[in-house]
Design brief:
About 65% of the residues lie in helices and about 0% in strands. It is mainly α. It has two domains: about 80 residues, no CATH class; about 190 residues, Hypothetical protein af1432. The longest helix has 22 residues. The protein is globular, with a radius of gyration of 19 Å. The two termini are about 35 Å apart.
């Protein structure tokens, strides 16, 4: 017997909260008058977070010309918003379970999430969006499927049934979840993001990455994430791993936002594999 939807939602309390330092970072960076020294002080009082942030900022992903040896310098070189998103990435990866008994392949999961994040980041730049917003697209991609981890770890029997049906039918997994569980991983991911008190536009993007057409006031982040996910799924299909069904296509909202064809979009991302390789630091343990 499948789990009751309300019990499933109640079990979100089983997921650990973010560290207090990360909550403070989110609080500070939500203010228009956030002072860099305040942010630096919060991070430096969390030694583990400090080490992880510096490791990521110094990775090939950011491509800085010199090594950053302090959080103060990191804020100067990559900016407040990027540091906020790095902290969110570190915190989420730290509190989400690393294993499950449902059969969800975690290596494949994180690679897909990373791919969506990198594509989203590239699309934001192709669109000419402000560089201060680009990091939002990466973290949205990295976290967009977190509802799957929650289901696979805390409700493995129920989610194994979802995975089994998907492997045999290749129907849209969100549709299978809605039928079997009464709720999709996207909606659950949004609920989990609310629990972590993430920014509202990030919550909306995660919640609606499979049904962007239902948002009448969707912004760049929401549409960009849905678009990046569709492109990543198209690439997966074209690789031959899932070619028994028609390839995923962009809906009208995604096409209008891109302003060019899927083929032209893919051609504009010739260095995608290289960018994914650089970003893998984010999903390493």
């Amino acid at each position: 017997m499948a789990i009751d939807k309300q019990k499933l939602l109640a079990s979100l309390d089983s997921v650990p909260a973010f560290p207090s330092s990360v909550h403070k970072i989110l609080e500070l960076t939500s203010k228009t008058d956030c002072q860099p020294k305040e942010l630096v002080g919060v991070i430096e009082h969390d030694p583990i977070l400090t080490i992880k942030v510096l490791k990521l900022v110094n990775s090939a992903y950011f491509g800085l010309s010199r090594e950053v040896v302090s959080i103060g310098h990191a804020v100067v070189y990559v900016g407040l918003n990027t540091i906020k998103n790095v902290a969110i990435s570190v915190a989420a990866k730290g509190v989400l379970p690393k294993n499950n008994k449902a059969g969800l392949d975690m290596d494949e999961f994180w690679l897909h999430s990373l791919t969506v994040g990198v594509i989203g980041r590239m699309l934001a730049r192709i669109k000419g969006l402000p560089e201060t917003e680009v990091a939002n697209f990466f973290v949205a991609g990295l976290l967009h499927d977190i509802g799957k981890i929650f289901l696979a770890h805390f409700h493995p029997t129920d989610y194994q049934a979802v995975i089994n049906e998907y492997s045999h039918t290749h129907k849209a997994i969100a549709d299978i979840e809605e039928t079997q569980l009464g709720i999709s991983h996207a909606t659950l991911g949004g609920k989990l993001s609310e629990k972590w008190e993430l920014p509202s536009d990030l919550i909306r993007a995660i919640s609606h990455h499979h049904d962007i057409q239902d948002l009448t006031d969707a912004g760049d982040l929401e549409i960009g994430l849905a678009c990046a996910n569709s492109i990543a799924n198209h690439m997966y299909h074209e690789s031959g791993d899932n070619n028994e069904n028609p390839p995923p296509v962009l809906n009208k909202i995604e096409q209008d936002w891109l302003g060019m064809s899927l083929e032209d979009t893919l051609a504009s991302m010739a260095d995608l594999d290289s960018e994914i390789s650089k970003a893998k630091m984010f999903i390493e343990n």
